[in-house]
Amino acid sequence: MKRYVLARLVQLIPILIGITFLTFGMMQFAADDAVDVMYEQTGGVSEEVKAEKRHELGLDRPFLVQYGSWLGGVVTGDMGRSYISGKLVFDTFAERLPATVELMLASIALTMLFSLPLGILAAVRQNTFFDYLIRFLTFVGNSLPNFFVALLLIYIFALKLGWLPVMSTGGGAQTLVLPAVTLAIAMGAKYTRQIRAVVLEELRKPYVDGARARGVPERWILWRDVLKSSFITIITLLALSIGSLLGGTAIVESIFLWDGVGKMAVDAILMRDYPLIQSYVVWMSIIYVGVNLAADLIYHTLDPRVRYSREVEG
Do the Cβ atoms of 93 and 261 come closer than 8 Å? Predict the structure, then answer.
């Protein structure tokens, strides 16, 4: 097991280095100059002042020298300072991350709350009215973009009914409902269809027929055997969702003014705050890779077949 974990960690090093290189390169070769954006509101600033600022920020050095210096800072935890606020980039990211994690956990909890029973019901009642209805609703939910769902929920529950606040500022549990539901609708629709497919696949396997032949109650077969075997796939889906949610909440956070890293990234893009954008991409990549590694280890632990095949290969 230790050898497998070490091998996976070694495999991740070139991936992360490639991500940092591409991220830094895209920021450096962007069409807009960061210094020009910083001074565009002040009006008549001479080119000499701008050149001095570029020298201060190290933007006049060769690309590879800048990248090497920045990568060394990333390794040591120093990702520079924001061009706009002047604060340390890592501190800004760390301040915003808990809000995104809170939103992510709430949306995952809502997703599992309705996708697990609906997916099981659709599989057990295959080709019945309930199955067709659930599949239709999940198709619609999976097709709607997040920004449209967000605006629709704001219109119904905030403007028309007045049950919930329009924007997620000021704290409180109510401010979490609309953005969490927005994320949970699309993710829950995808989960429901995946759980239905997995449960159907398990129900067709010989061990289920054998259990039925022995007179084992259908409910016992479903909850004790089928769901246990399906749990590995559900864990994999959860891990992928955690990674995608951490990096994919930018639009929802911006619409609801949720003060997380997604909104921070959108604001940084609009203001051309390149150190903050680079920090966001790199840290989201690290978290995403880490979560998927954890899911792979859990998969390796829970499924004896995978563990045995990897031990044989090793």
Answer: yes
Specify the residue for token string 């003014």.
Answer: 257
Q: Read off the amino acid at residue 103.
A: L
User: Would you say 119 and 195 are in contact if contact means Cβ atoms under 8 Å apart?
Assistant: yes
237 closest CA partner among 197, 202, 204, 281? 197
Residue type, 129: F
- Mean pLDDT of all residues in 84-88: 80
**Predicted confidence band of residue 312 (pLDDT cuts 50, 70, 90):** very low
- pLDDT mean over 74-88: 79
Domains of the chain and any CATH numbers: 16-76 (no CATH), 104-313 (1.10.3720.10)
pLDDT at 71: 83
Per-residue confidence (pLDDT) for residue 129, from 0 to 100: 92
Rounded Cα distance between 165 and 159, Å, is 9
CA distances from 236 to 68, 81, 176, 293 (A): 36, 36, 26, 11
Q: At CA 27, angle to CA 256 and CA 10, rounded to 5?
A: 95
The pTM (predicted TM-score) of the whole model is: 0.78
Residue 168's pLDDT is what? Answer: 66
- Confidence at 250, pLDDT banded by 50, 70, 90: confident
